[in-house]
Amino acid sequence: MAQSNGEQQTEYPMSGKSLVLLVLAIFLFGGGYLAGRHAGKASTEANSKLSSETGSTGNGGPALPRVTAKKIPADASDKPKLGYAELEQKILSMRSLDRGADARDWYRALDSLTPVQAQTLLAEVEKNPVRSVREAVRTVLLGKWAQGDPAAAMAYANALPNKTEREKAILAVVRGWAEKDAGAAMAWAQQLPGGQLRNQAMSAAISLLAATDPQAALEASKTISGRQNGYSSMWSIFNSFAEKDPAGAAQKALELPMGQQRSQALQAVGSSWGQKDPQAALTWAMGLANGGDKRNVVNSIVGQWAATDLNAAVTWAQALPEGSLKQSALSSLGHQWGQQDPKAALAYAQSLPASSTRANMMGNVVGQWAQQDADAALAFVQAMPSTTERNRMLQTVISQLSWQDPKAAAQFVAQMPAGNAQMSAVSQLANSFAQNDPAAAMEWLQTLPDGQAKRNAFQSMSWQLAESDPAGAAAYVAKMPPGQDRDNFMNSIASRWADSDLNSAVAWASQLPEGRGKENALSSLGPRWAEADPEGAMKFAQTLTGEAQSRLLSSIGSTMAANDPKAAVDYASRLPDGEAKNSYYSGLASGLAQNSPEEAAKFVASMSPGAAQERAASTVISQWTEADPKGAAAWVSTFPDGTARDNAVSQVLGSWGRNDPRAASEWLGTLPPGKGLDNAMNSFVNNVSWQYPDIAAPWAEKISDERQRNSTIENVARQWLRSDPGAAQKWIESSSLPDARKQTLLKMRGT
Question: In the prediction, which pLDDT does 532 show?
């Protein structure tokens, strides 16, 4: 291995950008970790111990770049208004995040606060014992505070002792600051040291800077490494470009390297252009070379056109030559057509040849119809013969209705025959049903017949049930028969219970019967326990044996290393050699890589050669490749020849190839020949061919092992035939495949 946060307010206006922030708070932090009791202390001391000019800390994170933005003076509106006391009480009493209409009302109330009010309410936030609630509300309040005083808000965020909470809070400040001054927020983010936090802060500022200066946003995006160079950023940038000059934006998008960022940019141009001049936009889109990008951009434009002139969009799509592009474009019209004239849309869909596209279009249409007239739509489905196409259509309908009207969706689920399709639909509905109304979801669950579908539904609901009443869920699980369902539910209970009452969660998990369920529960407690009481967590872990000990130690090691690397390394020396220490090392490497992959690499290099070192290296590579694939590749290139190096190379190419196939391909070309190269090429092709078969194809041909080469060529050919049959045919004909296998593939064209 190489050495390697008055008068009753009845209306709460919310800006579009703020609404995005609130949605992010709900979905990103709805399942957060336990922070223990330390965050409240940091919050009350933040203003007295921190410099609002420098952002340096007294007890939280590392020194951050100086925040030079001026504070916006308070005015009369900063006086408390009626409803403020109710907000304070709700913050203190919340034990889970509101959903649906309640959530919208609650977060609109928070968004109506002034920056000074948001700052004041943060003290109440830190008193709430449930981490997921603290993080979600803190995110909103810090964003509001940052709009008035970004320096003080940043100092507060950086005082939080827990690394995960601290970095989420810093990003909330950057987003709030960027709503008022995206350029200043961007300049600040650029001063952060390289790593995941800088990438995320840059992406947050870029998305808002794009609205006023897309060119500067684009240039800034080029300085972000890895995946955080961001799909949402590319969409914001090129949507802004296209609002002013769609043709110029299209050209800029095409100049980007092949990859998902380029695809996002092209779709953003198509969506914006399609709102203004769909015919011109389609003329451009039809000239795109890549089949996947062409199909997605055409669908985006046609969808925009249908919103303003459905008949024209349908007529255009119907005039396309027969093939996958026509079928995909027509399917994308199902939503709009189904809203305006579902019977006509269904009549057309039924005239199409039997295919997954026809089933998807019918499902889209019936899904829209069901939201207007569920009884009529259900009657239509009941009258259909029981076929595979009917089941596919039902899945699409259920997918659309699950969130808007889960009770109506349940009626459609009842029409499906037992089998994999029904189980998938039941699981999807169970998840959405439980989030909207857990009690009603449990009533529905009891109506299902015993079997795998019911078990899957229960598993999908378990997370919500455990969050709303962990003690009740624990009583329920005690009555369940042994098995995987019970084991997984135990894991959900432990995770959610630890958010509100760590001690009770530990006591409950400790008395569980020996087995996988107990192992799952203890492992899920690891991060929360290590944050609140690392010494106690380590001592308890050493009383365990086998897999339970290994999983808990790995979890503890990862959390400790992310929050306090030095202490985490010191703890390692207390463990005796063996599997327990190896498991802790693997988690330690993972936690170190969250802060600095380079330091994690040095730690791995200091380990003794063997399985433990290889496991730790794989963990570092996984995180490093997401943040900085070139850096990860350079490290892996220093590994000595052997299986560990071959596996590491394939791991880098798999992740890098999905995000930036051109760059990954270039690096692949620098690798030396050998059996390891065959494995690397195969890994690259398998990860790229589904979207970029033209990039994957040449590498498939270079695999030296004939059997592996032929199999890989056939996989690429099948993918390419779906997106660009003409180009695929030419390649197949010129490939090294035996003639009989070529003819078998060519028969797939047009099917």
Answer: 83
Neighbouring C-beta atoms of residue 472, cutoff 10 Å: 12
Tokens of 461: 């609901």
Q: Copy the structure tokens of residue 207.
A: 């998305």
Question: CA 651 to CA 620: how far, in whole Å?
Answer: 11
Q: Is the dihedral of CA 296, 301, 307, 313 positive or negative?
A: negative
Residue 572's pLDDT is what?
84
- Please state, in angstroms and rounded to a whole number, the distance separating the CA atoms of residues 589 and 212: 41
Q: Could you tell me if 122 and 135 are in contact, meaning their C-beta atoms sit under 8 angstroms apart? A: no
Q: Do 27 and 131 form a contact (C-beta atoms < 8 A)?
A: no
3 state SS of 578? coil
> What gap in Å lies between CA 237 and CA 174, rounded to an integer?
18
Residue type, 696: A
Q: What gap in Å lies between CA 117 and CA 684, rounded to an integer?
A: 52
For position 57, what pLDDT does the model report?
41
pLDDT recorded at residue 37: 29
Q: What is the mean pLDDT of each run of 10 residues along the chain (751 residues)?
A: 37 38 38 31 36 42 74 51 70 69 70 87 86 87 94 94 87 95 93 84 92 91 64 84 93 87 91 94 90 88 90 91 83 82 86 77 83 81 78 75 79 78 79 75 80 77 76 84 85 85 90 89 88 87 86 90 86 85 90 87 89 90 87 93 91 88 92 86 90 92 92 92 88 93 81 46
Please name which of 254, 216, 260, 259 lies closest in space to residue 237, comparing C-alpha atoms: 216
Exposed / middle / buried, residue 56 (Cβ in 10 Å: 0-12, 13-18, 19+): middle
In whole angstroms, give the CA distance from residue 93 to residue 586: 39
Nearest to 287 by CA among 315, 316, 331, 251: 251
What would the two tokens of residue 15 be?
């800006």
What single DSSP character describes residue 533?
-
Instruction: Take residue 352 and report the two structure tokens written for it.
Output: 């199409």
10 Å Cβ neighbour count for 62? 12
Show Cβ contacts of residue 480 under 8 Å, excluding neighbours closer than 6 positions.
486, 489
Residue 311, C-beta contacts closer than 8 angstroms, at least 6 positions apart: none
| Contact in structure between 650 and 659 (CB atoms under 8 Å) | no
Neighbouring CB atoms inside 10 A of 578's CB total 10
Buried b (16+ CB within 10 A) or exposed e, 474-487: bebbeeeeeeebbb
CA torsion, points 278, 284, 286, 290, in degrees to nearest 10?
Answer: -130
| Sign of torsion over alpha carbons 437, 440, 446, 450 | negative
**How many Å from the N-terminal Cα to the C-terminal Cα in the chain?**
49
Structure tokens that stand for 604 in this block: 């791995």
Residue (of 259, 250, 231) closest to 297 by Cα position:
250
Tokens of 643: 């299986």
Q: Where are the alpha helices (DSSP H) in 533-674?
A: 534-541, 546-563, 565-572, 579-595, 597-606, 611-627, 629-636, 643-659, 661-668
Closest CA to 395 of 347, 353, 360, 345: 360
The pTM assigned to this predicted structure is 0.62
From CA 230, how far away is CA 202, in angstroms rounded?
Answer: 10
Q: In residues, how long is the chain?
A: 751
523 token code pair: 């492992």
- Report yes or no: 512 and 490 within 8 Å, Cβ to Cβ: yes
CB atoms closer than 10 angstroms to residue 704: 12
Q: Write the DSSP string, 73-106.
A: PP-GGGS--TTHHHHHHHHHH--S---HHHHHHH
Q: Is 52 helix (H, G, I), strand (E, B) or coil?
A: coil
What's the pLDDT score for residue 28? 37
